[in-house]
Write a structure and sequence with these properties.
Blueprint (H helix, E strand, L loop, with lengths): L4 H15 L8 H8 L3 H13 L3 E4 L5 E4 L8 H9 L22 H16 L4 H8 L6
Antiparallel strand pairs: 1-2
Helix pairs in contact: 1-2, 1-3, 1-4, 1-6, 2-3
């Protein structure tokens, strides 16, 4: 599994929102500048996050976006799945794409283990956890 730029930037935007969660809306252009992402690309990402209810927009000259939950209530897994779709390493593990040969395939067990490991990590790490890690990284 390889996380695309869309997934990485979705996570970066959500982290930036959590970092600047002061009750004041965060502007996309400010977040994009801090993250080193183009404003146009960040706007596309924010549209998906907004539609899913992860953030809400505030209109007006002082507008921008706010988180709809606390940073501790967002898991990395849900953010990545929203932007990436399934995190399964092979398509036969996707619920909507069962493999006819699954019962005869010895490699499926390996792929299930990988899938379980990835899900076990991303579903237990929150934005709040990642913000806490920033204190451990020099220069963050």
């Amino acid at each position: 599994m390889k996380i695309s730029t869309k997934g990485r930037y979705s996570l970066l935007f959500m982290l930036d929102m959590a970092r600047h969660d002061s009750g004041e809306p965060v502007k996309v252009k400010d977040s994009a500048a801090r993250s080193g992402v183009s404003v146009k690309y960040m706007e596309q990402i924010v549209a998906v996050l907004n539609k899913a209810g992860f953030v809400r927009s505030v209109r007006g000259s002082q507008g921008g976006y706010l988180l709809t939950r606390t940073p501790a209530e967002y898991t990395v897994g849900e953010i990545l799945r929203l932007s990436e779709g399934s995190l399964a390493p092979v398509s036969c593990l996707d619920a909507g794409n069962p493999c006819e040969k699954r019962g005869q395939c010895v490699t499926v067990r390996l792929y299930e283990e990988i899938n379980n490991a990835v899900n076990g990590v991303v579903d237990h790490i929150t934005l709040a956890d990642m913000l806490g890690w920033e204190n451990e990284v020099p220069g963050c």
